[in-house]
Please model this.
Amino acid sequence: MKVEQILQKSRENMNDLCKSCPVCNGRACRNTIPGPGAKGSGTVAIRNYDAWKNIHLVMDTICENTPVSTQTNLFGHTFRLPVFAGPVGAVSMHYGDAYVDQTYNKVLIKACKDAGIMAFTGDGMDDQIMIGATQNIKENDGIGVPTIKPWAKEMVVEKLKLAKEAGALAIAMDIDAAGLPFLKGFVPPAGRKNVKELKEIVQEINVPFIVKGILSVKGALKAKEAGASCIVVSNHGGRVLDDTPATADVLEEIVQAVGKDMTILVDGGIRNGQDIFKALALGADGVLIARPFVNMIYGAQEEGVKALVDQLEQELIDTMEMCGASTIQEITRDMVR
Model:
């Protein structure tokens, strides 16, 4: 099946909060939470999507006509293309009860590995979510990134132990999840972490530590000071704070500040191969895509993930061919404007 067919099929398994839109641009769901929308006015997810459309490709076909490769090496592993499935939590509440987090992650992790990419998994109040995700990552040779919420120290240590036992290629914390209601009211206190607390996490592990939820140079420098190997430029899809800038609008300045020292990923409204190319041209090492993978799994499970990855790869190849790049490393800033 093609992506369009799978989207139609996914509507049968979704609640009425997600419309399985032909283009996931944040407009139809706007501020539906529960649901896949953004917080408050609901405009941040829309702004994320629109910002990539305001960046334009520079076509150049006067170049060597050599085969195009989208392969990239990140976290010591070679991937088919520099795209990862982003972490999604509480899928039954936000999308429909055809899946719970454990069953969703089980499909996602294996399907992404089989498709040549990697999945980030979510976290939640139920301990079984992280237990299941890390077990699935272990069963898939560590090809996955467990993403831990900024819980109180004792809980973080417990979840880090699970992640380490899974042999995951990297471990992430979505620090911007501090804005989620269930973390704001959590006892013992959870949420924001200082540099010292992040350093303690880095010292606990021997794989790259990824801080997800960086939206400024100041934040990136703090993550660097803490010893993080990687950051994800992200506003949590607009779900934790209204009126934030689009990730595309802050990516380049963050790259200029810390790009030589850290791996930089970006998410937020990235929907096709052209968007991926734009992110790479602005200096990102890779991208995360979240909501569309939910639709693919609700519509066709593993087949849906494969269809989306196949489509993204072909779109990226087409864009690289038309802009004069034959490898990911050849994508440069002057290829977009």
User: Anything to note?
Assistant: The first helix runs from residue 3 to 10. The radius of gyration is 19 Å.
